[in-house]
Amino acid sequence: MAVQAAPPDAEARRAVAPVMVYPPDTLPSVDLPALHAARAGWTRIASIRIEPRTAKAFALPRGHFFRILSVEGPQVGDLNLWAADDLSERFYSGKTRALHGTHVTTGDRLWSTLPHLRPMATITEDSLDWYGRDAFGCGVHDVIGTRCDPYTHRMLAGADYDRCCHSNLTRALAERTGRPRVEVEPLVHDVLNVFMCTGLDRETGRYVMKASPVRPGDFIEFFAEIDLLAALSACPGGDCGSEHSSDAAPCHPLEVEIYRSARPPAGRAMPARNAYAGGHGA
Ligand SMILES: [Zn+2]
């Protein structure tokens, strides 16, 4: 409900057409055929099962492919990525959203935080790319949401819940690095919401979610552009059709498969850290 009276030219101001902030043709191009060709004769080197309401961290060497698969039933996953040699460089969901849109699919990339700002991974296949946008404006694999966390739950529900994705990712990162939980918790960051079906309500702009259309056998596949450490949580929200931050929703495991390419894409250099000179006008 507006508190202020609209100015006389309110409609004229509203009628100004928007421009796209980062038009797709201005982004560095992705050679998808070369990446797809690099899958021929690949070898699966690891298969990792993420049990419901838990997370695991794992290494993804540069030039490898990895898939996140739905097994047994609809399930949402919360993905974090770090540069393996510097955990302060991590996935930047906000800039990825600005560059590619609220939901990502084949050909889109997951970008790292400033001052690095380089592609960490490129999406090479998405079995749910048929979904597009539904009548509610919702899509799959969002970079709008953050991750379910015990602090928000405490604030809103007044109770403690220990199996939120934030906590699962924190435990997984502590276990993987051998560092204390309090030390690694600040490294956990806003996620790629894998398989989650979400949107922004057209009237209010509020974040909405609905049961994921993912089914066993569905997957999203990535090419690791740099050496990565990743962590994936099987969200306590299950298909995120109703609630998370509780044990109420039916949950299923997720699987991660890592593949070594027999013929890595030729002539493909590792993305360098961003070349901005760093003066900041000082
Ligand atoms: Zn979650």
Structure overview:
It is a single chain. This protein is α+β, with helices and mostly antiparallel strands and 282 residues long. Helix content is 16%, strand content 28%. The protein contains 6 helices and 13 strands. The strands form 2 sheets. Strands 2, 4, 5, 8, 9, 10 and 12 form a 7-stranded antiparallel beta sheet that branches. Strands 1-13-3-11-7-6 form a 6-stranded antiparallel beta sheet. The longest helix has 13 residues, at 165-177. It is globular. The relative contact order is 0.27. The mean pLDDT is 95. Bound molecules: zinc ion.
Q: Helices, strands, pairings?
A:
Layout: H1 10-14, H2 32-37, E1 43-50, E2 55-60, E3 65-70, E4 77-83, E5 86-90, H3 93-100, E6 109-111, E7 119-126, E8 139-142, H4 150-157, H5 165-177, H6 181-184, E9 192-200, E10 207-210, E11 219-224, E12 228-234, E13 254-260
Antiparallel strand pairs: 1-13, 2-12, 3-11, 3-13, 4-5, 4-9, 4-12, 6-7, 7-11, 8-9, 9-10
